[in-house]
Each structure stands twice: as structure tokens, then as C-alpha cells.
């Protein structure tokens, strides 16, 4: 037996005490998660989602498979190569990145934009950099990337109850720190509800704080032309508002961005570690996002189609006695309770030809495991009929959970 392998299994040399197994705690924790129905498995899919109707992805406008995006990405890969070749501050900024930043700025109404290789990194950079040394006030329902940004900021963090403006106001009023950052999802990634952005902005302004809004699930979906929840709330271009976006959801590409005042972008370029030390977004992804913006501008009805389909899904749930809230954008959660119920419901959906997201703790609180249905602009009547039959089967299953 190999000595290293033997010792890893808990075997030592003759006459010596057996060293502790460093993997034992990981095996025990994995077994405990599996027993609680919280184990996770990677399931590779085919290009057509294994023949299932896709209600699990974040492809809200149905652009991820659009030939115009694919052709733009291919042209960029042939011209620029398959990667950006370096960090944004070295060789990773191309004219495509500059064009994309200008287009995102114009689309959202922001003063400046800075593109990242993912929306997750955009949130990490914005929260950690802008919140450093101060107070960060974060909604309890915020995405994990915001939570991780709070941790990296080393700021004092006040987590406020979901959508509770009074709690945000109190946290800001009671602070001793010189500066503060209020951070919230625009549309929350699981519950699908909308943050009270105007009220949060008023509270932030009263106390000299910045408001950072994550538009991951609202860009391309919320507002008359899909320009996002900040734009729809009449806050576009306010210097006290910072926006983060992802390009991998409604825009069907890859990457993220931070948008805001020139001071915000300059600070991130100078000091934002997730920006400085990361390889730039691949040119092909930048080109695909640019093509998506062209389509959204040319077809302003797409965001409304996604929202209408989400409303139809919510009505179908309500008609069958399933707990679903009215969606603010394209996310429709169906709360089922224990993890086992959500897993079974996802399996029932698959049996009926539909792929649905299955969310369990720690992605959601205990007792709120759910199916997350994500509407798409390009769902057809036949798709909605199949989804209705799957919901009926879940409603019947729910009685026995």
C-alpha cells in the first residue's frame, strides 16, 4: 500500500499512534447532509435540456441559444481569440469591453460602467470595496455574492429583515461609522419579489449613505424596456445609487458589471481586488452581450412577454392551491416546505417533461424548500399546457407530503 494513501486512511507506522484522518469530518458532514435531503449532485445536461421544457435556467428572454448571439461570439473568438489573455489592467481590456461598458451605461442610465468576468465578482468588488471600513446594511434575503462581499469588506454588517425600510433607517441612524452602504437585490433571486427601492434610496440619502442595487434578476425583465428596477423606480443616474448586473441571465451571455458615478468606477479600478486580480471577460462573451442588447433594444416587447408568462405561471399555481407569490419579474417560487417535498416535486416535473429549479437550505430558510420556476419570453401555449399538467401532479403529490 502507498504510504501516503495508507496514512490518509488512518494507518500509521508500526509502534506509532495513528494520526487523525483529516477527511473524517468531511465524510461525516456529507453523510449528515445526505440524510437531511440536502446533498447536491452535478447533472450534466444536453444542449436541449434533455428534451425537457426549461423552467430552471435564468434565460429569461430566451437569448442564450439565439443564433445572433452565437454568431457574434464566434466572430469575436476568431478575431480576438478564445480568452482575454490577462487582467483588465494589463491586456484584458479590448475595444469590445469598452463598447459593452458604454452600451450598458446608456441602457441603464448610469454615468459609468465597469465590466467583470461574472456578476458574482461584480458584487464582491462593489460591496467589499465601497463598504470597507464603514457600515454595510444588507437585506436578509440578499444573494450569497452580496453576503460574501459583506464578509470581505471587514465592515460592520447590519442584516435587516426582508424589505424592512424602517430597520434600514434605524441601522443608519444609530451608526457610529463615518460612511455607510445599503445593499439589496432589486428582484430577489428565490422569492421573486421587488425591493422598495425608492424608500431605501430616501433613507440612504437622509443619512449620507450609498445605495447598491443588484439588478441580476431585473435587468432585461423589469421596466417597460427591460432597463431594470432602478430605472423603473426613477433612480437612474443618481450619483448615490450603484448598480450591479449580470450578463448571464436575461442577456444570455456571461459576465457582470458595476454601474455608477465616475468616483465609484475609479475606486474599483484602483482598489477593487476582484477586478484588479481577475482575468478579464472573454471577448466572445462581451460580443454576445452586445448582440443581446441590440435585440432587447430592437424588440422592447420581450421583457413584457417574460413578465406575462411569469404571471401566468403564478396564476396556474394559485388555481391548483400551490403557494406562489405574484412575481415582480420572471421568478416564481412554489414553496413546498421540507427538502424532500421539493426534491420529489422536481422529479414529478421531470416526469412530465419540465425542468424546474429545486431550492433547499442553505439557499432558502428551513421549512421553505421550493421549486423555483423561471419564466421565459419564448414560452409557447403548448409549453404552458405541459407546465400546467406538471403543476397539477405536484398539487396532488403535495397532499401526501
Automatic annotation (TrEMBL):
EC number of the protein: 2.3.1.47
Keyword Magnesium: no
Keyword set includes Transferase: yes
Swiss-Prot/TrEMBL keywords: Acyltransferase, Biotin biosynthesis, Pyridoxal phosphate, Transferase
Catalytic activity of the protein: 6-carboxyhexanoyl-[ACP] + L-alanine + H(+) = (8S)-8-amino-7-oxononanoate + holo-[ACP] + CO2
Pathway: Cofactor biosynthesis; biotin biosynthesis
InterPro entries per UniProt: Aminotrans_II_pyridoxalP_BS, Aminotransferase_I/II_large, AON_synthase_class-II, PyrdxlP-dep_Trfase, PyrdxlP-dep_Trfase_major, PyrdxlP-dep_Trfase_small
Residue ranges of every copy of the Aminotransferase class I/classII large domain listed in the record: 52-386
Top EC group: transferase
Gene3D superfamilies: Aspartate Aminotransferase, domain 1 (3.90.1150.10), Type I PLP-dependent aspartate aminotransferase-like (Major domain) (3.40.640.10)
Region (Disordered): 1-22
Cofactor: pyridoxal 5'-phosphate
GO molecular-function terms, A-Z: 8-amino-7-oxononanoate synthase activity
Family to which the UniProt record says this protein belongs: Belongs to the class-II pyridoxal-phosphate-dependent aminotransferase family. BioF subfamily.
Subunit-structure text: Homodimer.
Name of the molecule in the record: 8-amino-7-oxononanoate synthase
Amino acid at each position: 500500500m502507498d504510504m501516503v494513501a495508507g496514512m490518509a486512511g488512518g494507518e500509521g507506522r508500526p509502534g506509532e499512534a495513528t494520526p487523525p484522518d483529516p477527511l473524517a469530518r468531511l465524510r461525516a458532514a456529507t453523510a449528515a447532509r445526505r440524510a437531511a435531503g440536502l446533498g447536491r449532485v452535478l447533472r450534466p445536461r444536453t444542449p436541449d435540456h434533455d428534451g425537457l421544457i426549461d423552467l430552471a435556467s435564468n434565460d429569461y428572454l430566451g437569448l442564450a441559444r439565439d443564433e445572433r448571439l452565437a454568431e457574434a461570439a464566434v466572430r469575436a473568438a476568431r478575431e480576438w481569440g478564445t480568452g482575454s489573455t490577462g487582467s483588465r489592467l494589463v491586456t484584458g481590456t479590448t475595444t469590445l469591453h469598452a463598447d459593452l461598458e458604454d452600451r450598458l451605461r446608456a441602457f441603464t442610465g448610469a454615468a459609468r460602467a465597469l465590466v467583470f468576468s461574472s456578476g458574482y465578482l461584480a458584487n464582491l468588488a462593489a460591496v467589499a470595496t465601497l463598504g470597507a471600513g464603514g457600515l454595510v446594511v444588507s437585506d436578509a434575503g440578499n444573494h450569497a455574492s452580496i453576503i460574501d462581499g459583506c464578509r470581505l469588506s471587514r465592515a460592520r454588517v447590519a442584516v435587516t429583515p426582508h424589505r424592512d425600510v424602517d430597520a434600514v433607517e434605524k441601522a443608519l441612524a444609530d451608526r457610529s461609522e463615518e460612511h455607510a452602504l445599503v445593499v439589496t437585490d432589486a428582484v430577489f433571486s428565490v422569492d421573486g419579489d421587488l425591493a422598495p427601492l425608492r424608500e431605501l434610496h430616501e433613507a440612504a440619502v437622509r443619512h449620507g449613505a450609498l445605495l447598491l442595487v443588484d439588478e441580476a434578476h431585473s435587468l432585461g425583465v423589469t421596466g417597460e424596456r427591460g432597463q431594470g428596477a432602478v430605472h423603473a423606480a426613477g433612480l437612474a443616474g443618481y450619483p448615490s445609487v450603484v448598480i450591479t448586473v449580470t450578463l448571464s441571465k436575461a442577456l444570455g451571455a456571461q459576465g457582470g458589471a458595476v454601474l455608477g458615478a465616475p468616483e465609484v468606477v475609479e475606486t474599483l479600478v484602483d482598489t477593487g481586488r476582484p477586478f484588479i486580480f481577475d482575468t478579464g471577460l472573454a471577448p466572445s462573451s462581451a460580443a454576445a452581450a452586445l448582440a443581446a442588447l441590440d435585440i432587447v433594444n430592437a424588440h422592447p416587447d420581450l421583457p413584457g412577454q417574460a413578465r406575462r408568462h411569469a404571471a401566468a405561471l403564478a396564476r396556474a399555481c394559485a388555481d391548483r392551491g400551490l403557494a406562489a407569490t405574484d412575481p415582480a419579474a420572471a421568478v416564481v417560487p412554489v414553496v413546498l416546505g421540507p427538502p424532500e417535498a421539493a426534491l420529489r416535486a422536481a422529479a414529478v416535473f421531470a416526469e412530465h417533461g419540465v425542468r424546474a429549479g429545486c431550492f433547499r437550505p442553505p439557499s432558502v430558510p428551513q421549512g421553505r424548500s421550493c421549486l423555483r420556476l423561471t419564466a421565459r419570453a419564448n414560452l409557447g401555449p403548448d409549453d404552458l399546457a405541459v407546465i400546467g399538467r406538471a403543476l397539477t401532479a405536484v398539487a396532488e403529490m403535495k397532499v401526501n407530503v
